[in-house]
Write a structure and sequence with these properties.
The structure holds 3 protein chains of 3 kinds. By secondary structure, chain B is mainly α. Helix content of chain B is 80%, strand content 1%. By secondary structure, chain C is mainly alpha-helical. In chain C, strands 1-2 form a two-stranded antiparallel sheet. The chains are: A alpha/beta, B mainly alpha, C mainly alpha.
Chain lengths: 249, 322, 300
């Protein structure tokens, strides 16, 4: 595993600040008055029952959706009105619930897209791709087409692609979903390593056990569009509101 | 790898020789047909780049060609500008128009562009007919000729040069960073955005470039044929170009070029049957999309290239086993 | 002059309502199938010819001919959808947006040129519903126009009732709002696509049949109205029937005023259409979802 490609420069300041975010779809309020602050290098688990608004929140944090009210600050910058690719260039990387790969392009080409979208020179790009592929043990598949990959390999490629932009904040949407136990451990390892190297990580998943194994310090819980708990796992999981939110599903 | 490029090089060399020597053996009519086919080849390949490669559907392609043509014709006749300058002006104006329409529609998504460009084309044609003080309406605008006298060969080489230049430019784009981004956008636009690709900007650039190319083609057409009419912008004309790209292979520039030549020649041969040929074209478009989405010609080109790659390997294998 | 303008405006409302009818069909097809039907203008044209031949060959009275035309177009729409649009929803098609645009454009070319070949390129007049005109003071409006406008209103009302009161209509409405939500409730959207396309085609055909006696029938009669219909559905909002109605009347009146302002027929046509397009541009800049639009266009 290469340290060089996946370690963050010391000078990168980063945090996410959300202030009173609201997002509505027609008559449904998916996110209602959510506020939080995330400091650099934190690893946070975001959990909640189905339909609680987790993915919508991630979409807001990564710019895929614009909030109807409230604002998002990335590294202190107000991201109001910015398009998703500007969020990406500001350092917010993400994976999707169901991997959205460029199917007919090769693994390497998939990685080249975000690499070239940043301002990287061609020589650097090739080296960096090789390093990240090595980190994720995907080197043998570099020239394979994305659609030929297995489910687990797709998840890894999603992660690799997100890393290529040198994000300071990584939002992983259901990285453990549908993944078999051996690969699960591998992904957990990768996440732990990334966090040690200074990445800020927000991990959304249903798999409470897996989330707890990485997010040792802080859990955020959403239910019905609201942030109902935010703090150390022991406290959060003992919170009666959290318990009832889960029991209710 | 080496044998692959050698085969490709040989094919291009042969085609190139045939193309360069054509005027020696061809009569006036054949030369004329070839020149017009080249005109359509430029239009079809640029449309294929926009629609197939970048995934953007414009029905204003012929309108941009007409814009370029009329611009050049009017500038040359009204202000005495030399013809090449007029053609450049047509190229630039069509590009600007493309950029404007692109800025307006491309951020909104696919069908909006198609709708708006269709409306633009229909209305542009109406305006061309209505403003006949400038454009001579349906009677047609006379356009000064690029080369005087019976210069069929000169026009032919000019058109060939134009086609080669356009194909080179488009190929450069395809191989560039922008080309990669366009492929990503075509695969999954939201994922491309999440990877940092400014999708709207990319698409506007392609749209501007292909509109400009259409304008240049239209300008050449005007100065070759000598007359421009609003019939350039009709739906059947646009449909012809669509059919050429679709049947040729919408993701393949070569396929579109070959498709253009084949379809134009076929439609000329079928002139006797009148409108029936457009009916057949419509049916062909529907059936090809339904049963052969990657076109009829491009798969052959692709398979031929693959076969060429396999043969040296087989020879190697045989040699080793001896 | 004022009475002339008023007359023109009244005519504009009539034509606008008919455009609205066609646009309602287009917007229904779009909202349920997520496909913009570039062949819509030719369906409108076919409706006109279907009614014409129903009268001439079957001897039907004009009113029934309109109904016959709508039924014929409904069946045609279902057949076309099953044959050529259903593959969109299997995984046989790689690039869905592209497929829909090209296939419906191919339909446009096929039908328009088939009409030229079969019916001939020259104009025809369809027989009137009822001859004569009604005189309200200085205004004289033909019965044909009144009947057409009235029929359009009736059909649009029936459409609304259909979408809100009947089982199938409510299913279509649900699917148009969210395919996923409908799936959760157990609705297989795909079964209803053919019906939606058929209804859309029938509405277009009805509009063409109604306008037959007012303007002439030619194979290209659907070209400009289809452009107008596109403008209307963007103005009114993709997927909104009330939006289509308001948009339709607006465009009809604009067109009519254009005719009043420009004495030159070519100019009038060109610039009233251009003005409608400018309205479209304005709407795209200010509020791309249209007056009553629900959501962004995309293949799910």
């Amino acid at each position: 595993m290469s340290e060089v490609a996946t370690a963050l420069p010391e000078s990168a300041p980063h945090s996410v600040v959300a202030e009173a975010l609201v997002k509505r779809f027609g008559g449904v309020t998916a996110v209602s008055g959510v506020s939080f602050r995330i400091e650099r290098g934190e690893l946070i688990g975001l959990i909640g029952p189905n339909g609680s608004g987790k993915t919508t929140l991630i979409n807001l944090v990564t710019g895929a959706l614009q909030p109807d009210a409230g604002r998002i600050r990335i590294d202190g910058r107000d991201m109001k009105g910015r398009r998703p690719h500007q969020f990406a260039r500001a350092g917010v990387g993400r994976t999707f619930q169901v991997p959205r790969l460029f199917q007919r392009m090769t693994v390497r080409e998939n990685m080249m897209v975000p690499a070239l979208a940043g301002s990287r020179r061609a020589g650097d790009v090739r080296r960096r791709i090789d390093e990240v592929l090595a980190f994720l043990s995907l080197v043998d598949l570099a020239e394979a087409r994305a659609r030929a990959l297995s489910g687990g390999q797709r998840k890894l490629l999603e992660l690799g692609r997100a890393l290529m932009l040198e994000p300071t904040i990584l939002c992983l949407d259901e990285p453990f979903a549908g993944v078999h136990p051996r690969l699960l451990d591998q992904i957990l390892d990768h996440i732990a390593v990334l966090n040690r190297r200074g990445y800020t990580l927000i991990i959304v998943d249903h798999n409470l056990d897996a989330v707890r194994r990485v997010a040792e310090r802080r859990l955020m819980v959403m239910a019905r569009g609201e942030l109902i708990a935010d703090g150390p796992p022991q406290e959060v999981l003992a919170n009666p509101a959290v318990v009832s939110a889960y029991v209710g599903t | 790898m080496g044998s692959d490029t050698r085969v490709k090089g040989a094919a291009i060399a042969v085609a190139g020789m045939a193309a360069l020597l054509l005027p020696l053996g061809a009569n006036d009519y054949l030369l004329h047909i070839t020149i017009i086919s080249i005109y359509y080849a430029v239009l079809a390949s640029s449309w294929a780049l926009l629609a197939g490669y970048a995934g953007q559907f414009s029905f204003a392609h012929m309108a941009f060609a007409a814009l370029g043509g009329y611009t050049s014709a009017l500038l040359v006749t009204q202000t005495g500008l030399p013809i090449p300058a007029g053609m450049v002006a047509g190229f630039l104006l069509s590009g600007v128009a493309g950029a404007l329409i692109g800025f307006l529609c491309l951020p909104l998504g696919g069908p909006y562009l198609a709708l708006f460009t269709l409306a633009f084309a229909v209305i542009f044609q109406l305006i061309l007919i209505a403003e006949y003080q400038f454009t001579r309406g349906s009677l047609g605008l006379e356009v000064p000729a690029l080369f005087g006298g019976r210069a069929g060969a000169a026009y032919y080489y000019f058109a060939l040069g134009l086609l080669v230049a356009c194909l080179l430019a488009m190929n450069l784009l395809v191989r560039s960073r922008l080309g990669l981004f366009l492929r990503a956008i075509r695969e999954d636009q939201e994922a491309a955005e999440a990877c940092g690709v400014g999708t709207a900007g990319c698409r506007i650039i392609v749209f501007t470039l292909t509109s400009a190319i259409a304008g240049l083609a239209g300008a050449f057409y005007g100065h070759y044929v000598g007359i421009l009419t609003p019939n350039l912008v009709t739906i059947p004309e646009m449909g012809l170009v669509v059919a050429m790209a679709v049947l040729g292979g919408i993701e393949s520039l070569t396929g579109a070029v070959i498709g253009a030549i084949v379809i134009y020649v076929a439609s000329e041969e079928l002139r006797q049957v009148g409108q029936l040929r457009f009916l057949l074209l419509g049916a062909a478009i529907i059936l090809t999309q339904r049963f052969a989405q990657n076109g009829l010609i491009a798969p052959f080109v692709f398979r031929a290239a693959q076969a060429a790659r396999q043969r040296p390997k087989a020879a190697e294998g045989a040699a080793r086993s001896v | 002059m004022a009475s002339y303008l008023l007359l023109q405006a009244a005519n504009g409302v009539v034509v606008g309502l008919i455009y609205a009818l066609a646009a309602a069909g287009l917007t229904l097809i779009f909202s349920v199938l997520k496909v913009v039907n570039f062949g819509h203008g030719t369906l409108y044209m076919l409706g006109g010819y279907a009614a014409f031949y129903a009268i001439r060959l079957l001897g039907l009275p004009p009113a029934l001919a309109v109904v016959a035309a709508m039924i014929a177009l409904f069946l045609f729409g279902i057949a076309f959808e099953r044959l050529f649009l259903t593959p969109l929803y299997t995984d046989k098609v790689e690039r869905k947006d592209e497929y829909a645009i090209i296939v419906t454009f191919g339909l446009f070319m096929l039908l328009e040129n088939a009409a030229i070949v079969v019916f001939g390129p020259f104009n025809r007049s369809a027989p009137s519903f009822v001859r004569g005109a009604v005189h309200l003071g200085v205004l004289a409006i033909t019965y044909d126009r009144l009947i057409a406008a009235g029929a359009a209103i009736v059909l649009l009302v029936l459409l609304s009732l259909f979408m809100t009161r009947t089982m199938i209509g409510r299913v279509l409405d649900a699917v148009s709002q969210s395919r996923e939500a409908a799936a959760i409730v157990g609705i297989d959207a795909r079964r209803y696509y053919a019906v939606a396309f058929g209804i859309g085609a029938a509405l277009a055909g009805g509009a063409g049949a109604l306008i037959g006696p007012i303007f002439t029938l030619t194979p290209t009669m659907g070209d400009l109205p289809s452009v107008k219909a596109f403008i209307i559905i963007v103005l009114g909002g993709m997927g909104s029937v009330p939006g289509s109605i308001i948009g339709g009347v607006l465009i009809g009146v604009v067109e009519a005023i254009g005719v009043a302002i420009y004495p030159d027929a070519d100019r009038a046509l060109a610039y009233s259409s251009a003005f409608s397009a400018l309205l479209l541009v304005f709407m795209l800049l200010v509020r791309p979802t249209g007056l009553f639009g629900r959501r962004h266009m995309r293949m799910e």
